[in-house]
Amino acid sequence: MKTVLIVEDDPINYRVFSKILTKRGGLAVQGTEDVEEVIQIAQSGKADLILMDVSLARSVYQGQAVDGIKITQMLKADPQTANLPIILVTAHAMEGDRENFLKQSGADGYISKPVVDHQMFVDQIMALLPKD
User: φ and ψ at 34, to 5 degrees?
Assistant: First the structure.
């Protein structure tokens, strides 16, 4: 079973994503907004894909406040985690944001919140999951 790591600071969003992915997608989910834990899970190969919230209110790495863009950049720069698919998730869906965020972060995909079409949400994630 494939595992999606959800990096999200809003417990309601986490529950919604988790439910959609387990019920509709048949996927296992893990969640954390602890940056050290995100890196550890990514490096250990325990996640097949990461759903990354862009604006993380409480995430700190080595004493610095970091957002989803920064964490994605760090993971993409590490040869050990560079190929792990990362989808940015954000409520800040203004014109041009998608391209900006993808270019800035090196992420593989972008989903705007709120997630209205649950099947499309699952399909976007399934499309980026590594095939066995």
Answer: -80, 115
